[in-house]
Amino acid sequence: MNMNRYELWEKLFPTLKSLNSGSKKEAKASEKEEIVEEVIDFSKVVIEPMYEENVDFETFVKSDFRAVKVKACEAVPKSKKLLKFTLDDGTGTDRTILSGIHAFYEPEELVGKTLIAITNLPPRAMMGIESCGMLLSAIHTEEEEEKLNLIMVSNRIPAGAKLH
User: Fold this and answer.
1) Which DSSP category does 55 fall into?
2) What is the pLDDT of residues 39-70, one digit of tens each?
3) 96 FRET partner, CA 20 to 30 A, in 57, 72, 122, 130?
4) What letter does residue 162 receive in the DSSP assignment?
5) 134: β partners
6) Distance between CA atoms of 69 and 99, rounded to whole angstroms?
7) Does residue 129 surpass a pLDDT of 70?
8) What average pLDDT score do residues 122-127 get?
9) 101-114: per-residue pLDDT in tens?
10) Is there a contact between 117 and 96 (Cβ–Cβ < 8 Å)?
11) Domain segments of the chain: what residues?
12) pTM of the predicted structure, to 2 decimals
């Protein structure tokens, strides 16, 4: 596998384009496409303080972070917050994880996405359903309102890929 650094960059970060990627024809076509991005005023964002307690390396490496593919997602009956995810974690057996993020996402918009989960937490029952792991998300406060974003990665990353 002989790639120059630009090809490697495009492979690792497919949504980002290097300066020398594509033809002039492609560049002109992309200029015509309107890209709409949400503008965030970061001056109004409040971030939680970092933990002061350090975690030793041996404890950290015991955490098993994996890429997981969302096969199905549904609201948990009788719960306003919980979504039930059926995930491909690369083992060949579906993994169920519950997450209290329904205020931020509708289930159908998450199907097919590639997320990051910690997979070696002990199972925990919620609303009578066993949750086997935790999905990672970024949380901040903006104008006194909590905002949550699931950590989503490229769909080119296979289910079960370990994060280091």
Assistant:
1) -
2) 777 888 888 888 889 989 998 899 999 999 99
3) 57
4) B
5) 118
6) 15
7) yes
8) 96
9) 999 999 999 999 99
10) no
11) 1-37, 57-153
12) 0.73
Q: How many CB atoms lie within 10 A of CB 107?
A: 16
Phi/psi of residue 139, each to 5°?
Answer: -125, 140
Residue 114 burial (CB < 10 Å; 0-12/13-18/19+)? Answer: buried
Per the listing, tokens 């002061």 go with 52
pLDDT tens digits for 73-91?
999 999 999 999 999 999 9
The residue type found at 27 is: A
Q: How far is CA 120 from CA 22, 89, 132, in A?
A: 42, 12, 8
Query: What residue type is 32 in one-letter code?
Result: K
Going from the C-alpha of 18 to that of each of 2, 10, 32, 103, 153, the distances in angstroms are 18, 7, 19, 36, 19
CB 137 within 8 A of CB 150: yes
- With 0-12 / 13-18 / 19 or more C-beta atoms within 10 angstroms meaning exposed / middle / buried, residue 164 is exposed
Class of domain 57-153: mainly beta
Token pair of 112 as six digits: 């097919």
70 bridge partner residues: 87
Question: E strands of 2-92, at which residues?
Answer: 45-46, 65-75, 83-88
